[in-house]
Amino acid sequence: MYDLIVETSTKLPKDVRRAIVKAKARENAGTRAAMSLDTITNNIKMADENVSPICQDTGLPTFKIKVPVGANQIEMKKAIYEAIAEATKNSKLRPNSVDSITGENTGDNLGLGTPVIKFEQWENDYIDARLILKGGGCENKNIQYSLPAELDGLGRAGRDLDGIRKCIMHSVYQAQGQGCSAGFIGVGIGGDRTSGYELAKEQLFRNNDDVNENEDLRKLEEYVMDNANELGIGTMGFGGETTLLGCKIGVINRIPASFFVSVAYNCWAFRRLGVKIDASTGSINEWLYMEGEEIDFTEQVEKEAAKLESENGPKHVTLQAPISEEEIRQLNVGDVVTINGMMYTGRDAIHKHLSDHDAPVNLDGQIIYHCGPVMMKDEAGKYHVKAAGPTTSIREEPYQGDIMKKFGIRAVIGKGGMGPKTLAALKEHGGIYLNAIGGAAQYYADCIKSVEGVDLMEFGIPEAMWHLKVEGFTAVVTMDSHGNSLHEDVNKSSLEKLAKFKDPVFK
Ligand SMILES: O=C(O)C[C@H](O)C(=O)O
Ligand code: SF4
């Protein structure tokens, strides 16, 4: 179980790698989407080499285990709990289990409801154990439709295959870049609100290259894969050719009055693996999702480096805090910014705290990074960053603008963009929003040269305010101080494109 957890957190399965490489081939060199995919492939390679988490959000570990009749599930649960605690201690998982009401972090990923373990008996004599580590940003973009429904851009979605088609297209649109697109979706048709989502998540365990045995669903999967990319949302919501990397659809019966279509959205960092285990010895006999072509990311990364040197990319600016208002006003959406010097992490707990407390450090002219890192404390008590990509910024929308103005913060780094309240504050106060590449936790951890301090540790490791010294930390300006937002633009254009899918396709 320990090996399964470590491999799942640090190595993407082969089918997922192939989907990412295909996406790369579709993007034009030099575009934001291509640059993001370069960072993503580089990150996958670094996670392989460092045996460290691909993304800092190691999610809610969810195990699906098929056991021979008579296997002791109580003993197996105990083994899983032990392995989870051990993997957390060794920084292969971020401590991710928090009390829902107080926010207190248990520190070892164990607690009420975590991890999720589902057993099923079967007639075979071996154990099939599968694990998915699905992070919070993409989980928040799951969506459930109750048909009939009125959908933005698409109009009426009725209780038939075409209504289902509309729901699926809409689900990709509503996720925008916030679930770290390009993503994979699992769709569950039917059931109740619980079993529908369950079915949707089960689809994520299918091999991305398989073919649906149900003829209607096969056609629907192919339709979605052929058309969703036309929404133009692209990697990280930057615009681009690839928005969706996989679509798997399942169906179960429903009761007459209910008609649910449930969609589970998974980021590109699609961490799910499985093993076949000998039921008598406990040894691993086979790894799953490992068939087919192996992608050599080392070769990929070298090719990109050569390509980049020969190209004129977007405007490139280097910043070091404290940043002046004048420097900020010179930046525009699309500029690429490289940061050297200090930045401070702050996510949900910090933003709420700062809204009615003083800051523990002087934030005038400083940079806030929406990030909950994986940390390791060495024997001398010094912290080291093991994984540190951005978190979804929109959660801080109610606080961000006020906090920037209150403390004089000049730049915020996160992913997925922010809303109109923050955009107005950036204009009024002189601030920028920088979009880092979601999930690229190894890439950014490598840019962090030292941990200079930490405040508010009582909020737990992911939520504390870490003082980070960085070098060469690169992100894109997606909201500037002149009222421009790439996120607003992509949202608007993708809604227009969504409306093109209004007419019936499946009669
Ligand atoms: O919690 C995190 O670090 C990130 C989260 O998975 C997100 O996508 O926002
Ligand atoms: S940060 Fe992005 S890649 Fe990581 S778990 Fe969240 S959605 Fe997935």
UniProtKB/TrEMBL annotation:
GO molecular function list: 4 iron, 4 sulfur cluster binding; fumarate hydratase activity; metal ion binding
Domain (Fe-S hydro-lyase tartrate dehydratase alpha-type catalytic) ranges: 2-275
Fe-S hydro-lyase tartrate dehydratase beta-type catalytic domain ranges (all copies): 282-489
EC number, as in UniProt: 4.2.1.2
SUPFAM superfamilies the record matches: FumA C-terminal domain-like
Alphabetical keyword list: 4Fe-4S, Iron, Iron-sulfur, Lyase, Metal-binding
EC category name: lyase
Catalysed reactions, semicolon-separated: (S)-malate = fumarate + H2O
Cofactor: [4Fe-4S] cluster
GO BP field: generation of precursor metabolites and energy
Database matches in Pfam families: Fumerase, Fumerase_C
Subunit structure: Homodimer.
Function recorded in the entry: Catalyzes the reversible hydration of fumarate to (S)-malate.
Family, per entry: Belongs to the class-I fumarase family.
Protein name: Fumarate hydratase class I
Annotated organism of origin: Lottiidibacillus patelloidae
